[in-house]
């Protein structure tokens, strides 16, 4: 049986069945829209001539909502490039098709909830970007793939994939139970992939950057922080830089992930909510995390970029303490803590001071190495990774990861003979521009997925220096983040939980049983931000409208200014009730219970 997935399908739809026929194949996957049965049949002319027909490029999966199952198909794709002689694709558009022909059996309330679930599904599917390949396993690094057994490579793509990075695993569950339908199970990776053909000194090579976002503790910036008792952390991303040149192949892997403590930072309308840390056993979850990382990647250099003072400083002290006092031999021998106060060291736009960090970790980079093989023979192995974090694992983290990747790139291109010993990446102007822009794109896409906006500090990544225009752009993105984190990200978190199967819609929601989407917030609370807006409007009116200022005008100005302050204070006091909070996953909601404050 071939391990590849069917690349192009013809989708036929009738009133009672769906047919999916791979191009150049005589087999059909048939889905009964009434019984929901899925079977594989030989094409013997059972498709009616009246059936509608459409070319599709893969099956994302099946999701069960209030109105019943929905089939999700890939209707548009874009070629990213070729990796290891295999084509990599980006998902561009999908179609969500209901099994049920109508929703007349649903109550009006159920229809409203079902539409909300569909909107959540579409929101995740439209978040950039999902990637796939019909013939290449995108979930494993080059080094992991090299050391797999031959029988492993003969397994279906979804069966051998690293479950940490398969975003439609839950959606494929109805198909995966039948081995004969393997050719229709297409695993999707969420994150960022760039494949570029580059030239230095007349030598052409392929430079690939892959960032794989984990499905565990996936979600949004403020609603998903820290670690869970199983040792998985929020915003965990594995980033791999690959070089293909003649018969050489190289790979350099880095990871990022939230600070591995049981902490949260719930939105409450404050610009920067105070991080909260619980009294639970941090050491057990912390140990599970790093033991799994050591087993998977080898030595860990934990680069922590958060502030030394203020609310972030207490997290730094707790993180450092856990590493230094760990009783586990595996952690003591294989985990090194490297702290660098990014904001303090690079204050006043002195980003050249990042070289201090690079010089400190250079011995670790050289000792951990990178993976390199030539003509099937391994020349070097990567024996550890840099695990970088800031508070969000976005902006500061991406800057440092790009600098580490540049260091490794210089080493491998010199080893391959593309660069001479005395040449620098920075002096190769054409490639340097490509390198900076791809890493900045990586920052933007990962940031959009987690925070809802592009990354901060990408002017440095793109140009190599901090600019005033970049500062203004960062201010704008920070304002948008504030709005989204407080007023939209609860729904975004619910959408991710629904897509990944952390919450599964139950039969009869909105009728025989309550639907968690039902709004329970007291609508009178919305009067508070309304009062702030009206009071502020009156302040401006008192300033701008009068032709001359009388004592009455000044008293009115003082009154409305005082009202603005009072209304703003009252709004902030009710901030936790006013923010848009997740409503679906119990595991998410448990994480949001307010533990004691840090320190």
TrEMBL record:
GO terms for cellular component: endoplasmic reticulum
GO biological process, one term: phosphatidylinositol dephosphorylation
Transferase among keywords: no
InterPro entries: SAC_dom
MF GO annotations: phosphatidylinositol-3-phosphate phosphatase activity; phosphatidylinositol-4-phosphate phosphatase activity
Enzyme Commission number(s) from the entry: 3.1.3.64
Transmembrane segments: 56-75, 525-546, 552-573
Domain SAC residue range list: 121-452
Keyword Transmembrane helix: yes
Record's catalysed reaction(s): a 1,2-diacyl-sn-glycero-3-phospho-(1D-myo-inositol-3-phosphate) + H2O = a 1,2-diacyl-sn-glycero-3-phospho-(1D-myo-inositol) + phosphate; a 1,2-diacyl-sn-glycero-3-phospho-(1D-myo-inositol 4-phosphate) + H2O = a 1,2-diacyl-sn-glycero-3-phospho-(1D-myo-inositol) + phosphate
Entry keywords, A to Z: Membrane, Transmembrane, Transmembrane helix
Name by which UniProt lists this protein: Phosphatidylinositol-3-phosphatase SAC1
């Amino acid at each position: 049986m071939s391990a590849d997935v069917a690349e192009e399908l013809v989708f036929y739809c009738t009133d009672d069945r769906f047919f999916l026929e791979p191009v150049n194949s005589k087999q059909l996957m048939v889905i009964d829209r009434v019984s929901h049965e899925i079977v594989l049949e030989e094409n013997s002319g059972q498709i009616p001539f009246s059936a509608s027909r459409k070319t599709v490029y893969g099956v994302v999966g099946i999701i069960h909502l209030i109105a019943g199952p929905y089939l999700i198909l890939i209707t548009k794709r874009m070629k990213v490039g070729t990796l290891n002689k295999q084509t990599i694709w980006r998902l561009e558009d999908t179609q969500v098709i209901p099994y049920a022909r109508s929703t007349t059996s649903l109550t009006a309330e159920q229809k409203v909830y079902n539409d909300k679930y569909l909107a959540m599904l579409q929101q995740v599917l439209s978040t950039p970007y999902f990637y796939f390949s019909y013939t290449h396993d995108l979930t494993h690094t080059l080094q992991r793939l090299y050391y797999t057994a031959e029988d492993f490579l003969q397994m279906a793509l979804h069966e051998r994939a690293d479950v940490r990075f398969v975003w439609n695993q839950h959606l494929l569950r109805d198909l995966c139970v039948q081995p004969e339908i393997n050719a229709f199970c297409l695993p999707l990776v969420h994150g960022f992939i760039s494949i570029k053909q580059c030239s230095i000194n007349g030598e052409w090579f392929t430079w690939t950057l892959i960032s794989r976002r984990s499905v565990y503790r996936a979600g949004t910036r403020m609603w998903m922080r820290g670690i869970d008792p199983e040792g998985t952390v929020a915003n965990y991303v594995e980033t791999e830089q690959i070089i293909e040149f003649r018969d050489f192949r190289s790979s350099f892997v880095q990871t990022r992930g939230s600070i591995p403590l049981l902490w949260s930072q719930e939105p409450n309308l404050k610009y920067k909510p105070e991080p909260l840390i619980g009294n639970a056993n941090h050491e057990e979850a912390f140990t599970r995390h790093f033991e799994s990382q050591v087993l998977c990647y080898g030595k860990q250099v934990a680069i922590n970029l958060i502030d030394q003072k203020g609310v972030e400083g207490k997290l730094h002290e707790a993180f450092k303490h856990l590493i230094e006092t760990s009783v586990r031999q595996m952690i003591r021998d294989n985990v090194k803590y490297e702290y660098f106060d990014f904001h303090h060291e690079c204050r006043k736009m002195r980003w050249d001071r990042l070289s201090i960090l690079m010089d400190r970790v250079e011995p670790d980079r050289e000792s951990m190495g990178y993976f390199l093989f030539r003509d099937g023979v391994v020349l070097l192995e990567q024996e550890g990774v840099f695990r970088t974090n800031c508070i969000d694992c976005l902006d500061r983290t991406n800057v440092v990861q790009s600098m580490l990747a540049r260091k490794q790139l210089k080493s491998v291109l010199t080893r391959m003979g593309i660069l001479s010993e005395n040449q620098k990446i920075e002096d190769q102007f054409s490639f340097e521009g490509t390198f900076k822009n791809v890493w900045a794109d990586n920052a933007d896409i990962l940031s959009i997925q987690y925070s809802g906006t592009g990354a901060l500090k990408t002017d440095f990544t793109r140009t190599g220096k901090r600019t005033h225009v970049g500062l203004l752009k960062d201010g704008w993105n920070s304002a948008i983040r504030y709005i989204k984190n407080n007023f939209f990200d609860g729904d975004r978190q619910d959408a991710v939980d629904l897509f990944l199967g952390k919450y599964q819609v139950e039969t009869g929601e909105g009728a025989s049983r309550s639907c968690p989407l039902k709004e329970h917030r007291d609508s009178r609370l919305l009067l508070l931000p309304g009062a702030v807006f009206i009071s502020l409007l009156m302040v401006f009116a008192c300033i701008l409208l009068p032709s001359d200022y009388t004592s009455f005008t000044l008293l009115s100005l003082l009154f409305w200014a005082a009202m603005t302050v009072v209304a703003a204070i009252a709004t902030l006091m009710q901030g936790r009730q006013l923010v848009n909070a997740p409503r679906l996953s119990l595991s998410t909601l448990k994480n949001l219970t307010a533990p004691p404050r840090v320190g």
